[in-house]
Amino acid sequence: MEQLGGETPHVGLLFTTPHHASQSIASDVARRTGLGHLFGCSGESIVGADKEVEGTPGMVLWLAHLPDAVVSPFRLGVVRNDEGGVEVQGMPGIGQRTAEQFVADGAAMFIVGDPFSFPVDAWVRDMNEHFEGLPVLGGIASGGHAPGQSRLYYGDHVVDDGAVGVLLEGARIETIVSRGCRPIGKPMVITKAHENVIEEVAGRPPLAQLQSFFDEADEAEKALIQRAAQGGLQVGQVVDEHISSPSGGDYLVRNVMGADQETGSMLISDYARVGRTVCFHVRDAEAADEDLKEMLAEVSAEGAAGALMFSCNGRGSRLFDAPDHDVGCMRDRFGDLPLAGFFAAGEIGPVGSKNFLHGFTASIALFLE
Predict the structure, then answer these.
(1) Could you read off the pLDDT of 340-364 as tens digits, one per residue?
(2) How far is CA 129 from the centre of its chain?
(3) Which domains does the chain carry?
(4) Between the chain's N and C termini, which has fewer beta carbons within 10 Å?
C-alpha cells in the first residue's frame, strides 16, 4: 500500500502456491487493503517482482491504481442446459456491448479458471466468435490434482470451481505472447484428418514426414527431435492462412498426444482441419529465450508502469538452465517493474485479433502510465 503513495487501489491480483491457499486469505487481503476488486488463484509456482518461486511456498499481491478505468469483476459458473450441454453463466453486462466498442475503449479481460470444472478452451472460442478483438489474458489454475483442490480468489471469497476475472475498460495495455517452441522441417498442408487425428500431411502420414525431417536434420536438430519424441513433440497450425510465409509466431501450437505406428497418424490436442497449414514444433530453451527477448524489444519501455505474467508450468527451471528466466528478461527490458503472475496449466493470450489457450508460452500484459 505504501508503494502506491497513498492512492486507492482499484484492482488487485493475488496468486499463491497451494501452501497459502487458506479460506481466509482473500478476506484478509480485502480487509487490510480496502480492496473490493480482487481476483486470482493458486498455482504450483508464482511470479513476483524479481523472482519465480518454484517448488517452495510463496504468494504475490499486485495492486493497481487505475482512476480512468472501469473495473468490472466477474465470477463464472457452469450449468447444464435442457439439451444436455453446458452453459457458462455470470458475465456481467458484456452482452450489451459490441466487440467494436470494447476495442475503441481499449478494453482487456483477465481470467483464471479451475481445470476440472470450467471449459476454458470452449469459452475462449465463444469469446472469439462474439467479441473478436477484445484481448483476453490469464490461465488455468495449477497445483491441484483433483476436483476441489484449486483455489480461486474473488473479492473477499475463496471458491474452488468455475472461473473468476475482471474486465478493464480504459486501461492502456500492451499484450505479448511468447512461445517456448520452435518449428522444425517445413510447413505442410493437412490432406486427410478427422476430429483431432491427423492422418496425412502433404499426402503422407505425419510420422513418415517427421522421419524425413529427422533424416535430413543436423545433429543439433536430431537431438531436439529425439527428446521431443519422448513426450514433447508439438504440432502448430497456422492462425491466419493468408500469411504466405508463416514463421514461429504465426502458429497455434498444440501437443501431440499419441501416434499410431501402423498407420503413421498422429493424435493432437486440437481439431485437425483439412486444408490447414501445419508444422512440427519442439520445445527449445534457446528459441524460447530469443522469442521472448525479440517480442519485448518490439514494445517501447517508455511509460511502462506494471505487468502481469501468465507463464506455462513447463517453462521456468523445467525449460531453462538458469532460474528466473522470464522475469529476468522483463527486468532487463523494463527495469524494476511491479510484476506478478503464476505458472499456469494452460495460458490464455491473443494472437492477432483472436485469443487462444496456449501451452509453453509466456502471456504478458504490460500496463502503461
Answers:
(1) 999 999 999 998 889 999 888 999 9
(2) 19
(3) 2-178+288-368 (no CATH), 181-283 (2.40.30)
(4) C
